[in-house]
Amino acid sequence: MSSQARQGAKGSTVNAIVSGVINGAMAIPLCIALASVIFSGDLRPYFPLGIGLFLVGNAMVAAIASLHSSSRFGLAGVQDSTPAIVALMVISIAASTHNNASTLPTVVAAIAISTLVMGLTLYGLGQFRLGVGARFFPPSVVSGFLAGTGVILLLAGLGFLMNTNLTMFNLNQLFLPGAPGRWLPGMWFGIGLVWIHLRFPKAWVLPTLLFASALIFALCLHGFHISTQTAIARGWIEGGFPAGRLWPPLSLAQLGQIDWNILGRHVVHYLIIAFVGSLALLLNASGLEQATEEEIDLDRELRGNGLANLVAGLFGGANGYLSISGSALSHELNAPGRLPSLINSAMSVAALGFGMSLLQIFPNFLLGGLTLFLGICMLKDPCVDSFKRLTRLEYGSTILIMVVIAYFGFINGVLVGLLAAFCFFVISSSKVNLVKFAGTCKTIQSQEIRSRSAASLLRRRGDDVRIFALQGSVFFGSSFNLYRRMQALLDTEERRAPRFLLLDFRDVVGIDSGGMTWISRLTKLASARQATLVLSDLSPVARRQFLRFMGPADATGPDLTASMHLAADMDEALQWCEDQLLAGGDPRGDSPAQPAEAEVQTVASLDAEAVEWTAQFIAKAGAYLQRESYLTGTILWRDGDEAVHLYLVESGEIEVGSFAANGERKRYFGIGSGSVFGEVSFFLKSPRMGTATFKQNTVLYSLTRDQLEAMASQQPQLALELQNRVLTMEAMLLAEDFHSVDFMMR
Q1: Which of 87, 295, 530, 580 has its CA 20 to 30 A from that of 14?
Q2: Is the pLDDT of residue 314 over 50?
Q3: How wide is the angle at C-alpha 474 spanned by C-alphas 468 and 479, nearest 5°?
Q4: Calpha distance 458→441 (Å, rounded)
Q5: Per-residue pLDDT tens over the stretch 493-509
Q6: % helix / strand / coil in the chain, to the nearest 5?
Q7: Is 516 helix (H, G, I), strand (E, B) or coil?
Q8: Average pLDDT over residues 45-55
Q9: Hey, which bits of 28-161 come out as E strands?
Q10: How far apart (Å, rounded) are the C-alpha atoms in residues 640 and 637?
Q11: In this model, does residue 521 exceed pLDDT 90?
Q12: Residues 284, 287, 292, 294: what is their CA dihedral angle, to the nearest 10 degrees?
C-alpha cells in the first residue's frame, strides 16, 4: 500500500471514530430524555430503569441495523417518533394495574413486546418487498402523525419538568402558583436549542451544546457551593432513587408478576407503534437518499432494522431504526463503514456502567428542554414547512389528525388518518387513468413543416423522444407508478434509452403535492441519466407549484435547468424536441447506428380511380416496364437491400414490416392494387426499409432508373405524369400524418 493510500485510510478511520463518538455522545442524553417521556408522573420512581431500556435498545439497534444497512453511511439508534405512543400505552397500563407490584413488570413487558412487534413488522415488510407501499401513503396523513407525535413530546417534556402526567385537559397545572418556575427554564432551553439548530444545523453542534451545558451547570453548583442533595431537593437534578443498576430492569421473580391480561388489551397500540415506526424509517431512508445521493434498498433497510429490533426486544430494549441525523454526520465527515455504529453502541453499553450516577450528569432543565426541542422540531415540518407544500385540504387534514391525537390519543388519530387517506385515494383514483396514450416521434410529430431529409431523420431517431399524454388526476400513487415507468425506460439495457421524456398535461385535472414530488424527482432522475424532462400544457397554478417544488438553485447540486423544459402546449414541446434531435450533439455521446425503419403508417388499397390510372399508365408505358408475377409468401426485398426498381401494382397485396428479436412480425403498412411503391428508396437511392412480403398472388410492373431516364428523354410527358402521381401519393400520406397528430392532441 502506498503512503498516500495509508494516509487516506488513516484519515477515514479518524473520521469514523469522530463520527462514532459524536453520535454516541448524542445518544446518551437522548436515551435519558426519551425515558423521561415514558417514565414520568406516577412512573417517575422507575425512571432509571427506563434509561437502561433505551440504552440497551440503542446499543442493539446501532450495532445490528447498521451492519445490514444498504447505505455506506447508515447509522441507527433509538428515535423520537415512537416513545410518545409508548408513553400513552404505558400510562394506560399503569392506571389498569393501580400502581401495584405488577406495574413495573407489565410496563417493561409492554415495551419489549412493542419492540418485538415492530421488529416482526419491519422484517416482514422487507422480506415480502412491501417497502414501496409506504410511497402510496398520503403526505398529509404522514405529516399529521408526525405533528401529533410532536404535540405528545411537548406535553411529555413539560410533564417531566412538572413531575406530572400532563395532557391537553389539565394544562392549567402549568399556571398554578410556583409552577412556571419549574418548567420555564427547560422551555427556554428547548427554544434556545431550536434557534441554535436552525442557525447551525451541523450534526455535531447539538451534542457539544448539551455536554457544555451540563458542564456549566456542574461548575455553577460547585462555584456556589450547592451540594448534590440540595440540587436534588430543589428538583434541579434527578435523585432519591435506590442505588443499583440501570439494567436488567426485572429480576426472575418479577417476571411472574406480569399481567398478561392487561398486555393483551393493547394489541392496537403495538400495531400503531410498528406502523408509525415503519413510516418514520422509510421517511428517514428517503431523506438519506437525497442527503448522500446513494441508491438505498428500502427492503434491505426494513429487514436489517427489523432484525435489530427483534434482538433488542428479546433484551427488553426500546425500539429504534435508521437515523438520518447520525447518517448525515458520517456523510459530512466522509466516514463510511460500520465503525461509527459500533462505537455508538459501545458508548451506550459503557453508559450502563455508570448506574444511577448517570442521572446527576444532566440537569432536569436540560432533559426536559431536549424533549421540548424534539417536539418542536417534529412539529416544524408538518405545521410550518408543509403549509406552502400542501394544498389547503391536505394541510387541513394534517392539522385535524394532530388535534385528534393530542386530545383523544393515537388510536383515534390513526383512525382519522386512515379515513383521510381512504378519502384522498377514492377521490383521486376515481379520476385517474393517467396515461391517455403513449408514442414516439416516429408516430407523433409536430405540425412544423420539415424537409424530407429532416423528416427521415426524425423517423429514424424518433425513439429518442418518448411521449406520454396524461389525463385525470396526478396524485401520490399514480405519479409514483409513472415515475417507475420512466425509471425503467431510462435504465433500459435492451435498447437505447430516450433523450427526452415528454409529459403532456392538457387533460390533467389536478396535481397534488405527492404527484408533484415524484415529478420533481423525475427531473432529477432525468438529469442523472443525461436526459431531459419536457412538460407541456401545465396550468399556471401547476407550473408555479412545480417550480416551487424544484426549489432555488443550489450551488453545490446539479443544475436542473438543462434537464427540464416547459412548453405552452404539446405541439410546441414536440417542435422543441425535434429541433434538439435535428441539432445533434447528444450529451451521452454518439449513438450506435440504428437500423432504418419504414414510416409507421397504413396505406389502404387505393380506390378504383387509382387502379384505373395504374392500368392506363401501364398500357402507355409498357415498353419501359417489366411484368412480374409472385406467389403468396414470396419476399420482394429485405431490409437494407439496394433499391433498384420502382413498382406499380396491377393486382394483389404486399405487406412491408420487420421482425422482432422474438420472431414476431411487426407490420408497417400495406400496399394494394393500383399502388406505386418503393419510391422513397428508389428516388433517394437508399437501402430498402423493412421487408416486403406478398400477402396474395400479385402481378406488378417494375421500372429501373435507366428505363425512367429513357422515358424522360423519349416521352417526357409520361415521366412527368409518373412523378406527379408519386408526389400526390406522398402528399396524401403527409396529410394523414397531420390528421393523426391532430386526433391524438384532441
Answers
A1: 295
A2: yes
A3: 75
A4: 7
A5: 556 788 899 999 988 88
A6: 60, 10, 25
A7: helix
A8: 91
A9: 75-77
A10: 8
A11: no
A12: 80
Distance CA 375, CA 194 (A): 10
The total of other beta-carbon atoms located within 10 Å of residue 188's CB is 13
Q: Once rounded to an integer, what is the mean pLDDT over residues 645-667?
A: 77
Residue 621 to residues 31, 367, 380, 390, 625, Cα–Cα distance (Å)? 98, 102, 85, 74, 7
Using CB atoms within 10 A of its CB, is residue 491 exposed (0-12), middle (13-18) or buried (19+)? exposed
Give the length of the chain.
Answer: 746
User: Amino acid identity of 556?
Assistant: T
Q: Which residues contact residue 286 at a Cβ distance below 8 angstroms, ignoring those fewer than 6 apart?
A: 296
Per-residue model confidence (pLDDT) at position 740: 54
Burial class from Cβ neighbours inside 10 Å (0-12, 13-18, 19+) for residue 357 reads exposed
Burial of 237 (0-12, 13-18, 19+ CB in 10 A): buried
Contact 340, 16 (CB under 8 A): yes
Residue 362: pLDDT over 80: yes
Which of the listed ranges 56-60, 210-214, 671-675 does the model predict with the highest average pLDDT? 56-60
Average pLDDT, rounded, for the chain: 82
How does pLDDT run across 178-232, given as a tens digit for each residue?
A: 889 889 999 999 999 999 988 888 777 888 888 899 899 999 998 998 988 888 8
Q: Give the contacts of 307 (CB within 8 A, at least 6 positions apart).
A: 64, 65, 68, 119, 123
CA torsion, points 449, 452, 454, 460, in degrees to nearest 10?
120
Handedness of CA 183, 187, 193, 197 (dihedral sign): positive
- Give the DSSP letter of residue 635: E
Report residue 420: phi and psi, to 5°: -65, -40
Contact 340, 330 (CB under 8 A): yes
How is residue 451 written as a grid cell?
424537409
Whether omega before 592 lies within 30 degrees of 0, making that bond cis, reads no
Q: Are the beta carbons of 567 and 535 closer than 8 angstroms?
A: yes
Average pLDDT over residues 393-411: 86
Q: Whole-prediction pTM value?
A: 0.60
Identify which of 657, 663, 646, 665 has the alpha carbon closest to the alpha carbon of residue 729.
646
**How far is 621 from 719, CA to CA, in rounded Å?**
9
pLDDT by residue (tens digit) across 530-570?
Answer: 889 999 988 888 888 787 777 654 444 455 566 788 888 88
> In angstroms, what CA-CA distances link 503 with 135, 547, 549?
21, 16, 17
Instruction: Give me the phi and psi of 466, to 5 degrees please.
Output: -105, 125
pLDDT of 741 reads: 55
How far is it, in rounded angstroms, from Cα 697 to Cα 634? 9
- With cell 465527515, the residue in question is 333
Q: How far lies 632's CA from each of 255, 599, 690, in Å?
A: 88, 24, 18
- Rounded CA-CA distance 538/536 in Å is 6
Which cell goes with 123? Answer: 422484517
What order do you get walking across the sheet with 654-659 strand by strand? 635-637, 691-694, 654-659, 665-671
Residue whose C-alpha is closest to residue 635's, from 651, 652, 655, 665: 655
Q: Kindly indicate the confidence band of residue 744, based on its pLDDT and cuts at 50, 70 and 90.
A: low
Give dist(CA 498, CA 305) in Å, integer.
Answer: 38
Alpha helices for 76-138 (secondary structure H): 83-97, 103-127
- The answer to whether 76 touches 308, Cβ cutoff 8 Å, is yes
